[in-house]
Design a protein that fits this description.
Its EC number is 1.1.1.290. This protein is of the alpha/beta class and 369 residues long. It has 15 helices and 13 strands. The structure holds nicotinamide-adenine-dinucleotide (NAD) and 4-phospho-D-erythronate.
Length: 369
């Protein structure tokens, strides 16, 4: 029988785990658990596995799956050299990220530029998440500049914009992995050198902390050449720089990819890869992706009010602000990520017809009546 150890916060893991396997759960806040006799380890981004955190790999361990798109918490060179198969859940949360970005843009526009078009948006990294962002932006008729030189190298149908073109955009949104090696490293991609002498209305980082140099970003915000910034991810998670967060238009605790649908996708994708790797019987899930109706009865809302009710971005923002001066903010940041119920993505939400007719943006987001 295959012995599986999984992060206790991998959503619905007990339901989706293949039958006839033995599943144990671990609490990731206590570090890497004892892996003796474990065949497969299922983690989230909070479990960092490398030569330092796991110097000795038990011979039984053959598979590590992560319920995330990002894999920078796993040292793939080290693990592959030790004969371990790595599996990610790329794409599981692309729609959730796109909705986070679009919601943030709509809220920001309503507050800062209600009478102007959004401007040109540069999407840096046009993989699963970046492509979903581009798709949603296009539905809103926003002009996009797609920047992804590595994709141009591997995909004959894709032409990347030039660096100059993307840096000339009004808004930048990041959807690249965090990498320090290779031909296109992303660590501190947006730095002093690229920010100097340019003007941006808004910068969004919902990729990984470290892709944007936070201190350089804050400096150019204070000087006025960056009008606003939105950060979902932080250089030293679960810690975060309070000063950088205080200046942000929106600051959230790494939840851009969190939704009911994304979290189910994540667990399903890793379980499917586990099944394929060990050639075992899959689980038969009873889970059904149903829609939810949100009642706005008798209350008069504007677009900002409706979006705030349907997407917890502002709620997370307020909760993160409450942590600014707390000495235990690292633990609370982690709790905030684990304890809130997952939101439903817009195509799984239904609201009153009058509201949909009054605010066309809601239909464009995929909400129905
Ligand atoms: N905040 C969140 O909740 C959240 C959710 C999902 C993903 N992420 C992060 O976003 C990243 C992207 O997610 P994805 O699912 O789209 O992954 P993906 O692998 O599908 O796409 C990443 C894209 O970035 C491109 N890229 C790599 N280096 C680049 C560079 N130097 N310049 C321009 N483009 C570059 C790649 O070619 C690829 O097309 C993940 O690695 C993860 O770290 C964060
Ligand atoms: O890389 C990803 O997919 C995202 O950052 C994802 O939201 C991470 O979720 P976690 O594993 O931290 O719960």
């Amino acid at each position: 029988m295959i012995h599986i150890l999984a992060d206790q916060n991998l959503y619905k893991i007990e339901e989706l785990i293949p039958p006839h396997t033995q599943l144990n759960l671990y609490d990731p806040s206590h570090g890497i658990p004892d892996l003796d006799d474990t065949d497969a380890l299922l983690v989230r981004t909070v479990t960092h596995i490398n030569e330092v955190t796991l110097p000795s790999i038990p011979p039984s361990l053959k598979f590590i799956g992560t319920g995330s798109s990002g894999t920078d918490h796993l040292d793939n060179e080290y693990l592959e050299q030790k004969g371990i198969t790595l599996a990610d859940a790329k794409g599981c949360n692309a729609r959730a990220v796109a909705e986070y970005v679009m919601t943030a843009l709509l809220l920001w526009k309503a507050e800062h530029k209600p009478d102007f078009p959004l401007g040109k948006v540069g999407v840096i990294g046009v993989g699963k998440a970046g492509s979903a962002v581009v798709e949603l932006l296009k539905e809103f008729e926003v002009e996009c500049v797609e920047y992804d030189p590595p994709r141009e190298d591997r995909d004959p149908d894709f032409n990347s914009a030039s660096l100059e073109e993307v840096l000339n955009c009004d808004i930048l949104t990041f959807h690249v992995p965090l990498t320090k090696k290779g031909a296109h490293p992303t660590y501190h991609w947006l730095n002093e050198e690229k920010l100097k002498g340019r003007k941006f209305k808004l910068i969004i980082n919902a990729a990984r902390g470290g892709v944007v140099d936070e201190l350089a970003l804050m400096k150019y915000f204070v000087e006025g050449s960056v009008e606003n910034y939105i950060l979902d991810v932080w250089e030293k998670e679960p810690d975060f720089n309070t000063k950088v967060a205080k200046h942000a238009y929106i600051a959230t605790p790494h939840i851009a990819g969190y939704s009911e649908q994304a979290k189910i996708n994540a667990t399903k994708i890793v379980c499917d890869k586990l099944v394929a790797h060990f050639d075992i019987e899959p689980a038969i899930s009873k889970y059904k992706n149903v829609s939810k109706t949100v009642d706005f009865a008798h209350i008069k809302y504007n677009l900002t009010g409706i979006l705030t009710r349907l997407h917890p971005i502002k709620g997370y923002e307020a909760a993160l602000r409450d942590l600014f001066d707390r000495p235990d903010k690292k633990v609370l940041f982690r709790n905030l990520r684990n304890e809130w119920p997952y939101r439903y993505e817009y195509p799984f939400l239904k609201i009153r017809t009058e509201l949909l007719n009054e605010y066309s943006e809601l239909k464009t987001l995929g909400i129905t009546d």
